[in-house]
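One record is set out below.
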Amino acid sequence: MSLSNRITASITDDQKNEAIALVKQAMEKLPFLITVEGKEKKKLVKFGPDSVSFVEDALRGVNEFPSAFPASFDKEEFIRDATLVIALRDVFVSVGSLYTAINDTLSVTGADAMSAANDAYSYLKKAASNNVAAKDLVDRMSLRYKGQGRKKTTEPPAP
């Protein structure tokens, strides 16, 4: 097993279920959230992190210079949209930090677990030689590496 196990932690079923419930609760607080498929997303006007300040400036302009806009420009709808963009950005940053922390923790603990699982697989292969139940488990585990073949070792070229 790897000697550099980076995370030693555990989570109870209650903690996991509570975290999931809190995420669901957050989703319920934002019932207007939608998902957009790839093709539709490509058709949208480009919007990235730098665009928020552009929207904020436009919002300031609508509020400070309302007479500059024709009647066809729906100021109320723009103000709602811009205000939502600004608020959602803050939520996005918070959720993004949580997502990144969970994803990084999952990656590191997954790597630790896979390293130990590979060691366990080696031990189980040895045990399978005289234990039918262990052989069935090893056969199932071997599917993880099916088709990968052995790594070829390359010898350095002759001088």
About this structure: Residues 75-128 form the longest helix (54 residues). The chain has five helices and no strands.
